[in-house]
Amino acid sequence: MAQGSLDSNGDITCPTSTDGESSASHVNAGLDRLRINAADENDDDGAVQITCFSDLSDDLTLHFQIIRLHKQIYAWIGCNSAKFGHLYAAAPTRPNNMVSVTSLLGGASDNTGSGIARRIVLKTGLNVVLACNIPKDSPMLEAAAEKKLVRKLIDLGYT
Amino acid sequence: MDALSAPFPVRHRKLSLDIQGNKTDIVICSYDDHFLVIATQIGSMGTTLHARKEEGVSIHPTFSVSVIFGKRDEPVLVACARQLIEHISNCGSSRPLVLSLGLKDHSVGTLRGVVTAVIVNRLW
């Protein structure tokens, strides 16, 4: 990058570039660096879109992460921590578009996330993979998390 | 710092690149107790694998990789998970890996491309 210097009046000057394009490219390179470094909670470039948000209610913090792919949605719900939790897959299946859910990780004894996944598919018709670490036997928390997640999905354009 | 002004607890990294002629979207997420890697060329998560380091007393760790959703007869996918979990272990982390691969072709070149791209952009 060209170094500036002070002229006799004390003003900063830069040696003029003989090639007009290279100074524009310096500016553009600087702008690109800023864009690359800027942290963005709504990561929107390209085909895959990632949305992260948190919600504080009743002394509990719920964290939500939604990764949107073309034909599928991955969502993670965290209750007060960033543990991965149990993983479920749910989708409308033949016949009659009835919803099927399966547990992928975490065993079938704790069904908190599977109910949420099933109801998301019922409401939105999407193919969903859900990771959820909400503790079992908390129906109010489960309902609150599901409501917030579904509202966000509707805001993002899924109905 | 209250919960709403704290940074989001899960770090993630997203990239898009061309692997053997196919546009591939890769997302890497770091949770407290897992790493999640999604590499897709088909718009969905595809086959999902779970890879973890086994508890053991010997110097050399052993790893267990299993397909939890999708194609169970593609050794290239298992090899990909195996390479990544070993890399995670060599970098000092014992967290297991959930890997989703939605690939158009299951060639060794694609495997290499995915593994390289994930390692270069790793969060471990």
Terminus-to-terminus distance of chain B: 26 Å
Report the biggest beta sheet of chain B as strand number plus sense, adding barrel if it closes.
6 strands, mixed
The Rg value of chain A, from CA coordinates, equals: 24 Å
- How many DSSP helices of chain B? 2
Q: Main beta sheet of chain A: strand number and arrangement?
A: 7 strands, mixed
InterPro entries (chain B): Proteasome_assmbl_chp_3, Psm_Assembly_Chaperone
Pfam families (chain B): PAC3
Protein name (chain B): Proteasome assembly chaperone 3
Organism (chain B): Escallonia herrerae
Structure report:
The complex is a heterodimer of chains A (159) and B (124). Chain A is α+β, with helices and mostly antiparallel strands. In chain A, α2 packs parallel to α3. Chain A is globular and about 65 Å long. The mean pLDDT of chain B is 92. In chain B, a hairpin with a 2-residue loop joins β1 and β2. Chain B is of the alpha+beta class and 124 residues long. The chains are: A alpha+beta (159), B alpha+beta (124).
